[in-house]
Structure formats: structure tokens, C-alpha cells
Protein 1
Amino acid sequence: MVRKSRISESLPAAVAHTLSQLGRNIRTARLRRKLRMEDLAERIGISRFVPADIENGKPTTAIVGYVWVLWVLGLLDQMKAVADPDRDQEGKILERAQSQGGPGQRTLDVVWLSKPPEWVASSGRFGMPCPITGDGA
């Protein structure tokens, strides 16, 4: 019996939208290069179903599939900006707040910027627990 991944059962709307948009972008790039899905799969050495799952934004598709496809399409350099610490403004603010706090001082709740994090605001799932503290379910 195949066990279904719980990660795909409760996707925040922002995550589902991002996967869908990434899939559409990859499809557009493939079509502009006049590559059939089978050609793309053959270059990577995978089943033709994997690129189809990627283009459909299927959440259980391994990230390595996305990275391979981006590499074949010549778009891998764009991945360097993903989670770039130099572009992580919220992380920098939290790091600064923690470094200014004294020993034993709890600084976790110092800053959530002026609005809720994007994953809360765009998902509409305000009943979700905080990913850091686990509070608020």
C-alpha cells in the first residue's frame, strides 16, 4: 500500500500557488526551446511523468527533479537567489535583535515586522501553529 505524504494534504495556499506558477514557468521555458516532455525526461534520465508532475506543480515531486529540469533548460543560475541569506530581511532583523539581547533574554517574540509573515497572510490559515514556537493552533 502506498502511503500518502501528509505534506501534500495541507498545503498553504501560497505554497500551492508558487508550485503551480513554477510549473507554468518551466513549461513555458520548455516550449520556447521546442522540447517535448519526452526529450526533457530523456536528457535527465527520468520517466516522462516527472516533468509532467513538475509542470503541474505536484507537491510530492522531489526538488531534485525541479533542479535537474532547470539545469537542462539553462535556468539553474536563477536558483541561487532562492533563500539567499543576503536577501533575508526578516532573518537579518531577528539576528540583530538576538545579538542585542542579553544572556538568557528571550528575543524570539521581538519582531514579526509590521504585518504577519507572508505564509500566514496569503494562506488564510490563521489557525496554523507558529512554525518557530508551535503556539496558536
Note: The chain has a mean pLDDT of 81.
Protein 2
Amino acid sequence: MAVGVTAGAPEPYGATRRALPGWRRGARRGSAGGVPRGLAAGGVAALVLAALPCGAVAQSSAVVQATGENLRDAPSGRILAVVRGAAGVEVVGERGRWREVVLEGWIWALSVGPTGAGSLQVDAAGGENLRAEPNGRILARLNQGTVVEEVERRGRWVRARRRAWMWAASLRLPDGAGFDATSPAPSATPAAPPSRPVARRTVPGEGAVLRVSPDSTELGSLAPGAEVEVLERRGGWARVRVEGWIPEPPPAGVEPEPPLAGITAMELADHPERYQGKRLAWSVQFISLERAERIRTEFYEGEPFLLARGPGEDRPIVYLAVPPELLDRVETLEPLDRLEVVGRVRTARSPLTGAPVLDLLEIR
């Protein structure tokens, strides 16, 4: 099944300005959608849930053995973070097939702010990485609104701790033994699809999160207006099928075609089908780093992207979606820096502004 995931002007619409030299970081701190910041997603309420009685276990170290697993504020509760495989946690409690754990690491100080209750909350629109040490190996990705306890500070880094819940079967002890969780996670394995869809529907205006199962891992986001086939309905949830395209690297041992040079934004707009998915080599001038808001359907909400002036005599506005592995590099850029980049065409014309959108692959 192919899964479609969604995932100008110098002042673009629908973007949240991210901290850059000359800009004040954290300017949008405050309430989240009208909810007091202490009760935002994963907020103080989650800390109260974590303190509810649970079965006591001898504290022990464990390692996440899945490729990635959700950290939740309660068993089957709200997702606070996605913890990477091989990350270590301390197991401090249990409730059925769930384990209460303590996750600790380092987070960039400018991505968190005080909650007013003696703790910190992740402010960054797309969440923030939790690392084993300052600028070190990534342990987890904390969602925006997740509340953590501050342990210490070191320069612009904060050592943070969070007590929450993980599925026991996704953890193993240092000696390789797993926890007692012989049954699969609730609804972890979807039933076989029926022979044909029972209905079709259009994703509503606010979009939708696509999950493996109602209480399981997120696969991505569906853009407003996306068409899906409904295969099954169960208790307020619909199992759906959606088709789309994702980039595919060349087979092992096959060199990719060199990126196309000399292609302008105007040429993309004139021949969108010709260049869709093609790799381009561009010379651009950096303006700012932005975070996409929900209205920007060519990005997923909170996705970081470069606002830049593209190639050509008129130097049109272009957008370059930034992958996680290049975000640290991009955050060091100064406005008006000139860059040689390689990007893959995501769309030749943004639905909102008409500017081209590329996935940033390389900064030369």
C-alpha cells in the first residue's frame, strides 16, 4: 500500500517565525489554542496522571527494542514523545502490560519555556529532540506542549526528565530479557481489509492524523481535502486506505542522476509535471527559517522550511523544506547568506502563494 503523508512575498502567509540571529526566540510562548499553558497537550495534567498509584516494581534500567515507541501520559493515553530504538529508560512502575518509565536527556534551552508550575514545556512548533548529551545522540522527539522537569543547565542546554508510560513489549532489560507482555498491544494488528471499500470520504478542513491503530503510533498527517477509502468503522474510528507517492532512493550500487542545473522557478511553474520529483541544483539567498502552520497544506504542520530567494534575474521567493538532519546546520545561517543547495521538487506551485516548494537534500 502506498501511503500519502503530508506529512511570493518576503513575509509569507501561514508561517511562524523561528529564532534566528536578530529574531527573539520564544516570542509566541503563552497559551496553546486558548488552553492555559499548564494544561496544554502533555501539560501539568499529564504530570498528575503520572503520579497516580501503580504497581510498584524494583527500579531497573531498560532499553527500547522497537525501532521507535510512543511515550504516553497514561496507559493508552496522550502521546508525549516518540522514543528511538536503543534509548535507555528507568522502569519505576507497572500497570498491566504497561511500564512506567523515567526518560532523561538534554534539550535545547530556547525550545522550552516555564509553565508557571516549576517545570518546563516544549514550545517549538514541531517539537524538539531530546539528546544523550548536549548536541549528542538523539534519544527521543518530544512533542510540542510536553512538560518536563528541569534537572540542570549547561550553557544553552537543559537536562530534562519526564516520567510517563510505555508498552512493556517494546522494552528489554540489559541482559536481553523482555518484560512479561505476551499478548499484542490493544488493536496493534489491524484486521484484514474487506474485499472492497464500504465508503469514500474527504478529510475535513482541519486535516487528520493517520495512525497504525486507534491507540498506536502515528504514521503521518492527511491534508484537508484528501480523498480516502473507508474499509471499516469501529467505535468512532475508521480504517482507511489512501494512495500517494513518496521519494524512493536508487537501488544499492546505482548512482543517482546528477541534479539538474539552470532550472528557474518560472520554468517549474510552466512545466510542473516535467520536473515533479526531480533533483535540482540551485543557488539561493537565505531570508529566514520558518515553521509551517496548518494553513500551509504543502507542508505538515510545524515542518521547518527555508524562506529564500531563488535563481533567476527576478530572484523569486522559494521554499525549501528542511529535514531533521540538516536543521542544526540551517539554524546557524544568517539572513542574506548565499547557499548552493540540492533539492527535490515537492510541488512546482504552492497552493497558497504560488511559489515552488523543494525538499532540501544537501547544502554544498
Note: The CA atoms of residues 264 and 311 lie 6 Å apart.
Protein 3
Amino acid sequence: MKKGVLIVICIVLVTIPLVWFIQSSPKKITLNKVALHATATDCWMAINGNVYDATAYIASREHPGGAEILKGCGTDATSLYDARPADGKPHSANAREELQQYYIGTLSQ
């Protein structure tokens, strides 16, 4: 009985860190996969090598540039993000910080 309990404890001690590692590893997403999410109601975009699901942000209608954000849906939107279409300026530090809450993975080749 004691040997069985020890085996269970060892399994738990090995499994928990492994599960944490798997869950904390960034998900790899191809640009082809991003391209499948190209609408206002399902919008993923790649920016600077990371992938973001902007669907909820679009639905909130809080984007100061209005529908301009839709140009990035399903694409590598790095150039749009770094030089906004309206004025050619990069997004603010606040916008870059807010973007992080929509992170879903890293862009893979």
C-alpha cells in the first residue's frame, strides 16, 4: 500500500510540471490558419510575429480608427499596425499594451 501511494505521488510530481509546461508554451499558428479568420466576426491577425484574435475587440466597437481594423483580419497586419493607414503613424504604447490581451500564439513559417 505504501509503495502504491509513493508511485502516485511520483506520477503527480512529474505530471503537474509537464502539464504546466505544455499549457504555457506558445501555440504555433501558420499564416494559412490566420487567413481562415478574415471577417469582423472571426478576426485573427499577425503582428510582429505574434497572432492575435481581435474578434472581441472589433465587437466592442472601441477601435478609434473604426472599420480600418478590418483590413488586418486574416493577414500579417504588421505594416498596418506599425504605420496606421489614416496617418502613417505607429500605434500608441497604450494600444500595444492592450493588444497583448488578445494574444493567441506565435506565427510559424
Note: The domain at 27-108 is CATH 3.10.120.10 (Flavocytochrome B2; Chain A, domain 1).
Protein 4
Amino acid sequence: MSASQQNIADRATAAKPGTKPVVYIVDDDDGVRRAMSTLMESVGYAHVAYASAREFLRHYDHAQAGCLILDIRMPEMSGLELQHELARVGCQIPVIFVTGHGDVPMAVEAMKQGAFDFVQKPFRDQDLLDRVNRAIHQDSTLRQEAADKNDVLQRWSTLTQREKEVMALIVEGKANKVVAQDLDLSERTVEIHRARVMEKMQVRSVAQLVKLSLLVPQ
């Protein structure tokens, strides 16, 4: 094996946050890191490998899409401890645990704590790749949902307090006349507020507004 192949496990394939997903590999076994990195490279996945959980924590950017392949047993900080730390800081990167035969109960507990999946050694390459593919798809979906929610919240934040009050009553299904009575306004004033709400929230129907209202503070 060439020197470049030996170093492949600890080399990152260039990827800017928010563009190409990155597969993170955390395992204290050099041979395992090399093998997993070679596998990821063979299918075109950008990847970064670390020899310890603490090293991963020092370098990981939460804004970077991807997934984490994590050895469940490691010195200093175990895979489970790293999972707990990621959860503590609100990081939702999908975690795929790699376990030995005797670690299955630990892996099951990790799943209960929110791990995406686990694979038991020895495993087929395709089994791991299938899990990575699903994990990256889940991460992409969750990130898109978060981005969509942030977009809605940004629109909602542009509403005045009165427009928010009008919107809250509109999504309850109340007619302009009723909204006017509830807020002690003229019906014409409610119509103006309603039009501004629809414009700022970028919707054309009450049904669309109701859907967006589920994402904003009540």
C-alpha cells in the first residue's frame, strides 16, 4: 500500500459546509479508519476520519451536512459519551455506531438515545453504505425542514404586533367582521391588515397561511 493510501483515513475530502455531505469516521483503530475511508472514497463520499471523540469535537462544524460513523468503545471518551455530548449541545447529526459482538446491548441503548442505526463487526461493506445513504438522506431532510421553518419565522418576524393578532384570528377561521369585533377595529382596517399579512407571509390562501402558522410561536 502506498503512503498516500495509508494516510487516506485521516485525510478530508474538501467540502464546504452546506454543499456536499461529509461522512465523519471516529475510531481509535488505524486499520478500521483506513478501511472505512477507502470504502467511502470508492463511492465518492467526502469523508474525514478522527482517532478520538475529543479530536472530532474540536474540529466538527455543526453546519456541515453529513453523518457520523462512530466506534462505540474507545479510550478516554467512548462513542456513547460522544453521542451524549452531541445531544447536549443540540447537534442532530445522524450517528451510525460500529459495535462488536458483545456491544449489542450498548448499541440498543444508543438507539433509544437517538442514534440513527448500528452495524455489528464484521459487516459487509454494502450494509454500512446502505446505512450511510439513509443517514445522509435523513440529515438532508431534517436540515431542509429546519431551513424552511427558519424562513417562515423570518417572514413572521416582519409582521407588526397587530398583524400577528389578525393572523392568529384568521387561521382560527374567523371572518373579517368577527376579527374586527374581537380586536375593536373597523372591518376595513382588518382587511388592510389581512392583505399585509398575506403579502408578508408570501401566501395566497388562508389554507397556506394555516399551514405556516403551525411553525410560528402561538
Note: The mean pLDDT is 88.
